[in-house]
Write a structure and sequence with these properties.
Number of strands: 4
Distance between the termini: 52 Å
Number of helices: 8
Oligomer: single chain
Shape: globular
Strand order of the largest sheet: 2-1-3-4
Mean pLDDT: 91
Order of helices and strands: HHHHHHEHEEEH
């Protein structure tokens, strides 16, 4: 079984259904939250794969991860019931990611991630957002992260491209050049 093929089939079917019902925007928000829950709580995936939990408990867990205390949309609830009925909960994270990709392609949304050593100001964030949006000719979703291990500079991921201007990477390159130069001398 190819995880990618099965996950994409579920995601495509959901996207087509959501578009026919006009609910793709609401589902997108729920799946964004579910994706955040998967990334923030790796135990969620293990819990869904736990055979001791009942389908009802897994359903409640998924809905809580996607919408918190609010009620899940009818389409989301029906889709999760289908996933659980077909015992595909182990693929749910992949289905989620596939659906998010399909939605973003359909709505021309670019995804960017800016990693800096210190927090950036709102003005800088907005300038980067606007520049990336103009460059892609698409609307942008920009996430910012602070990672002190990069020591300075920034790392900017946009769709499938990465611009790494971090001090840590620059130091690694200098170190590698120094090592290579010494090897040639010996």
């Amino acid at each position: 079984m190819d995880i990618g093929i099965v996950s994409m089939r579920y995601a495509k079917a959901l996207m087509e259904y959501a578009k026919s019902m006009g609910t793709e925007d609401a589902l997108y928000k729920e799946f964004c939250m579910l994706d955040r829950s998967f990334r923030k709580h790796p135990d969620l995936r293990m819990a869904l794969e736990n055979p001791i939990l009942t389908i009802r408990e897994k359903f409640a867990l998924i809905c809580t991860a996607a919408v918190g205390d609010a009620p899940a949309s009818r389409e989301f609830a029906r889709f999760m019931a289908l996933v659980l009925k077909n015992r595909r909960e182990n693929l749910l994270q992949y289905i989620c990611l596939s659906f998010l990709d399909l939605y973003r392609k359909d709505k021309h949304i670019g995804v960017g991630r800016l990693i800096t050593a210190v927090p950036v100001s709102r003005e800088v964030r907005e300038r980067i957002h606007d520049s990336a949006s103009a460059l892609l000719h698409a609307s942008m979703e920009l996430q910012t992260e602070v990672d002190s291990s990069i020591e300075g500079g920034f790392i900017f991921d946009i769709n499938d491209f990465r611009l790494d201007a971090s001090i840590a990477t620059q130091l690694k390159k200098v170190k590698q050049q120094f090592i290579d130069k010494n090897r040639r001398i010996v």
